[in-house]
Structures are given as structure tokens and as C-alpha cells.
UniProtKB/TrEMBL annotation:
The keyword Transferase does not apply. It is found in: Nucleus. This is U6 snRNA phosphodiesterase. It catalyses: a 3'-end uridylyl-uridine-RNA = a 3'-end 2',3'-cyclophospho-uridine-RNA + uridine; a 3'-end uridylyl-adenosine-RNA = a 3'-end 2',3'-cyclophospho-uridine-RNA + adenosine. Residues 1-59 are annotated as: Disordered. The active site is at residues 137, 225. One of its GO terms (molecular function) is lyase activity. Coiled coil: none annotated. The gene is usb1. 3'-5' RNA exonuclease that trims the 3' end of oligo(U) and oligo(A) tracts of the pre-U6 small nuclear RNA (snRNA) molecule, leading to the formation of a mature U6 snRNA 3' end-terminated with a 2',3'-cyclic phosphate. Participates in the U6 snRNA 3' end processing that prevents U6 snRNA degradation. In addition also removes uridines from the 3' end of U6atac snRNA and possibly the vault RNA VTRNA1-1. One of its GO terms (cellular component) is nucleus.
Length: 282
């Protein structure tokens, strides 16, 4: 915070009050003299003394608390990719902006985690070191940026749109390779094969809110999937050519029969920054 103190100089004040007897201040001084014999006659000298005293007095130092008050808002965020596995942000972090996405969560079964471990070992043997996803979910929006004061109205809009939406069921069983728009990360996912119709209906509802807030809507021809693992860089073709068919064989030849993800869509979630909002379905 910058506190700006300003006053006219004593020289300016003297010039304004002594050179022009027709000024409003001089006229008021004469009128007051005529009406009151107790009023001091030399208004200019009194003002000169007051101004001189104000200029000669030392200014009080600005408190440290005021100096530090807005320092945080001036600091620039430096994104360190090594802090999160070498990943690069799709958009620059700015204070007050909240990365936001809508999704359906998946709580993995133990058999699913065991299968994933086998898949990671196989991919590594082909020189592709995959990292397991931190959480598993089915995305229903792109990741967009919300200002903090938009969050509550945005959430309320989504909640209103989902008021009458019914629970449904999805299956995923085919592996597919994806990348982000910037080609800085490659993903191994399992594509949804059953339950696409209600998902498309959900996208319409979410996209209405996105349009309302002038944000990016979902893909025109979406491939609904659950991301299983990822690696840094563009390895789409390498993953497809070297081991995708072998990875699919692990899924199809699972000891309990062909493995598939069973996703009970009983609620949607929206994550905005570090906040998570729940939307139970009917």
C-alpha cells in the first residue's frame, strides 16, 4: 500500500494569498475583518507558519505490516515440474485462478490394482516407464479455469442441471492410448463400451454451465475413458506399436476371465482447486 501525502509548498501558498487581493480567500478575509474585530488581520502569516511547521516535521515511517500487506499478491508463481513427476501445466498458474473439472469417480477393486501392476511391469520391459494415476475417474469436462468468486454460482448451476438425473452403470474393457493437447503427456486408458448414452446426456448438462460461464465445452466426439497410467512426453505411437496389444492380452486373459471396469455412476464430483463438491444422482 502506498500512502501519498501531498500539500502545496509554502512559496505557492504565499504567492496565492499575497499577490492577488481579488482572490476569494482575500475577499473572505476582508469580510471577516469588517464583521468581527476579534478576528486576526494577518491570515497569510498564520497559514505560512502552519505550512512551514508541516514541512519541517519529519514523516512517520511506514509500518512493516503495511509494507508486507500486498507483497504476496506481487510474488510470481514458479511452476516446478520436478515437484509433480515432471508434468507441465496446460496453463500458467495464477493466484486467484482455480483449475476445475467435473468427473465421475471410480473406486478400484483389488483385482484391478493387481492387473495394473502387471501392466506397469510389461510396459517398463519395453522401455516405457508408466506411472499409475493418483486417482481413477471418468472425466465429464475439460479442465477449465475459474476465478474464485465464480465457484459457488458455477457449482449451483451444475447442481440445478442434475436435479432429476438418474443413476446409471458403465463398463470399460478396451485399452486405448491418449495424449493431452500439448503432447507433453501420454496416457493409457480403458475406454467405456457400455453406458455411453447417459454419459452424453451428462455432457449436455455440464456443457450448458460451461457455456454460461464462457468456458470450454467437452469434445465433440468424446472417447469416454478412465485413465490408468501416464508418462511424460509424446509416446502415443511408441506405446501403440511396442506393447499395447500385449497389455490388452493381459486384460483379456485375466485369471477370472476378461477383466472390465464396472463403474456405478451414483454421483458426480467437481474439483476446483483443493475443494471437491459432490452431486448425488437420483
Amino acid at each position: 500500500m502506498i500512502v501519498n501525502y501531498s500539500s502545496s509548498s509554502s512559496e505557492d501558498e504565499t504567492e496565492n494569498t499575497s499577490k492577488d487581493d481579488s482572490s476569494p480567500l482575500r475577499k473572505r478575509g476582508k469580510l471577516d475583518t469588517e464583521n468581527s474585530i476579534s478576528e486576526p488581520l494577518d491570515h497569510g502569516s498564520v497559514k505560512r507558519k502552519a505550512v512551514k511547521s508541516a514541512h519541517s516535521a519529519p514523516r512517520l515511517p511506514l509500518p512493516d505490516s503495511v509494507k508486507e500487506m500486498f507483497r504476496e499478491s506481487e510474488e510470481q508463481w514458479i511452476d516446478k515440474s520436478e515437484a509433480h513427476g515432471g508434468r507441465l501445466r496446460s496453463f500458467q498458474h495464477e493466484r486467484g485462478n482455480w483449475a476445475t473439472c467435473v468427473f465421475c469417480p471410480y473406486d478400484p477393486e483389488e483385482a484391478f490394482l493387481e492387473l495394473l501392476n502387471e501392466m506397469m511391469v510389461l510396459a517398463a520391459s519395453h522401455g516405457i516407464p508408466l506411472t499409475l494415476s493418483e486417482e481413477f475417474h471418468l472425466s465429464l469436462s475439460k479442465t477449465v479455469v475459474l476465478r474464485h468468486h465464480w465457484i459457488q454460482p458455477f457449482i449451483q448451476s451444475i447442481r440445478t442441471g442434475l436435479t432429476q438425473f438418474k443413476k446409471f452403470f458403465c463398463l470399460a474393457d478396451k485399452l486405448k492410448v491418449y495424449s493431452n493437447a500439448e503432447k507433453t503427456r501420454t496416457f493409457l486408458g480403458m475406454e467405456i463400451s457400455t453406458g455411453k448414452t447417459p454419459l452424453l446426456e451428462l455432457i449436455k448438462i455440464v456443457d450448458e454451465t460451461m457455456t454460461e460461464f464462457n468456458l470450454s465445452t467437452f469434445y465433440k466426439d468424446p472417447s469416454f475413458h478412465i485413465s490408468l497410467a501416464w508418462c511424460v512426453g509424446d509416446h502415443v505411437e511408441a506405446l501403440k506399436k511396442t506393447c499395447l496389444s500385449e497389455l490388452q492380452s493381459l486384460v483379456d486373459a485375466h485369471e477370472d476371465g476378461p477383466f472390465y471396469i464396472k463403474l456405478n455412476c451414483t454421483e458426480l464430483r467437481c474439483k476446483s482447486g483443493n475443494k471437491v463438491f459432490l452431486f448425488p444422482l437420483q
